[in-house]
Amino acid sequence: MANHPRNVAIFIFDEVEVLDFCGPFEVFSVTGKRDGSNPFNVYTVAQERRPVLARNELSINPRYTFADCPAPDILIIPGGFGTRREMNNAVVLDWVKQLSQKTEHLLSVCTGDLILAKAGLLEGLAATTHHGAISLLQEIAPNTKIDATKRFIDI
Question: Which stretches does DSSP call E strand in 2-144?
Fold first, then answer.
């Protein structure tokens, strides 16, 4: 493990699914706490500095914005109904595309892959998503092998 903590940025946006961003936040945040290794510096990032209203109106204050976010080693794109809007947000797509060239790992949860697909980052790869978004993913990513039978895909 590296001597310095790996930066883990979790993108949050209006109507982000709470479990999709809080689950990874919790897992990365507690890793190494018992042995004092603290391998991850975990933070939220949003397009703007304002409260984000997650699913069911849970209000979250992002720690950083696109403009002042530390360079992530790992970028997590969670899902939620808000992905349908964010997948058409040119600022978000450009930010994700730029970071995809610099991060060690780019991860999506559930319908977060709709953003990756619209950014062109799933071209020629395999992917899966929430059963309710399979047809939308097929529509926006015709060159992606979509496997609706899988719960996760590691590429």
Answer: 6-11, 40-46, 52-53, 59-60, 64-65, 74-77, 105-108, 126-127
Q: Report pLDDT digits (tens) over 50-85.
A: 999 999 999 999 999 999 999 999 999 999 999 999
Percent residues over pLDDT 70 in the chain = 97
Structural contact between residues 11 and 27, judged by C-beta atoms closer than 8 angstroms: no
The contacts of residue 123 (CB under 8 Å, 6+ apart) are 141, 143, 144
3-class secondary-structure state, position 120 = coil
pTM of the predicted model, to two decimals? 0.92
Please tell me the distance from the alpha carbon of residue 152 to that of residue 148, in angstroms, as a whole number: 10
Which residues are bridge partners to 75 per DSSP?
9, 106
How far is the C-alpha of 110 from the C-alpha of 114, rounded, in Å?
A: 9
The amino acid present at 124, given as its one-letter code, is G
Q: Is 22 among the residues known to form the active site? A: no
The domain 6-146 having CATH identifier 3.30.56.10: the answer here is: no
Domains of the chain, by residue range, sit at 6-146
Is 93 in contact with 103 (CB distance < 8 Å)? no
Name the catalytic one among 22, 110, 119, 127.
Answer: 110
C-beta separation of 19 from 10 below 8 A: no
